[in-house]
Amino acid sequence: MKYKFNFAVAAAIAAVSGMFAGAVSAQDIDQGSVARGGKLYDKWYKVIKADVPEASHSLYPASNEKYANDPKNNWRCKECHGWDGRGVAGAYASGSHATGIKGIDALAGGDPAAVVAILTAPAHGYGDKMAEADLMDLANFVVYGQIDWSTYVDADTKAPKGDAAKGKQVYNTVCANCHGADGKLPKDMPPLGSLMGNPWEVMHKILNGQPAEAMPAMRAIDHQVSADVMTYLTMLPKE
């Protein structure tokens, strides 16, 4: 019995070890790759300086008349799956961006290679649009970059769940140099305070940066800091 018991214990340990052999710890995730993937999810063609596809994406539904004939938008990942990654179950369940397409949340924590396979399959058609490294960054965002939005945003009120006083300190040291103390810079974009009707987009850009711009990504920092910044943004001028 003694030897059988020891063998059983060893077998159990081996089984558990096998379960986690392919797991990736948080400290092993390349946050730079994830953040770049977030920018690709936002507007991939600007990140890689590519031309916008001439034809609309084949999977984009004709039922959305606003964007069905707009390749500049309907080739963006966020346009189908939403800034929150939840698609029809999230913020894009209704409104001008509604498509009825499911989200990417089921792919969180999965295998990046499987996501690349989806992206390069004929249906999605990104195989000839992005290089292998770009596809892997995008896949890393899908697998490792999704967050629990309910922790940071109230879905019903769209109010960020942060501390405005803490957010002000971060904003004034990290953001104000480019956006101004009142959030009205650069002049070619709307005031930051006016953007808080879409906290999912704002937090996505705080975490990952803005495509083709020098905006830093705060992904490697505690995400609550980004929620604090958003809470402060709600206090800035909207006009």
Q: How would you describe the overall organization of this protein?
A:
It comes from Marimonas arenosa. Residues 32-146, 162-237 form the Cytochrome c domain. This is C-type cytochrome. The chain has helices at residues 2-20, 31-47, 71-74, 77-81, 112-120, 132-144, 164-179, 199-208, 223-233. The protein has 239 residues and is mainly α. The chain has two domains: 27-145, no CATH class; 151-233, Cytochrome Bc1 Complex, Chain D, domain 2 (Orthogonal Bundle). α2 crosses α8 (199-208), α5 crosses α6 and α7 crosses α9. It is globular, with a radius of gyration of 21 Å. It starts with a helix and ends in a 6-residue tail after the last helix. Residues 1-22 have low confidence and may be disordered.
Total strands: the figure is 0
Uncertain stretches of 5 or more adjacent residues = 1-22
What is the count of helical runs? Answer: 9
Structural class: mainly alpha
Could you name the key traits of this structure?
9 helices, 44% helix, Cytochrome Bc1 Complex, Chain D, domain 2, 239 residues, mainly alpha, disordered N terminus
Task: Provide a quick synopsis of the model.
With 239 residues, this protein is mainly alpha-helical. It is 44% helix and 0% strand. The chain has nine helices and no strands.
What's the topology here?
Layout: H1 2-20, H2 31-47, H3 71-74, H4 77-81, H5 112-120, H6 132-144, H7 164-179, H8 199-208, H9 223-233
Helix pairs in contact: 2-6, 2-8, 5-6, 7-9, 8-9
Protein name: C-type cytochrome
Domain Cytochrome c: 32-146, 162-237
GO molecular function: electron transfer activity; heme binding; metal ion binding
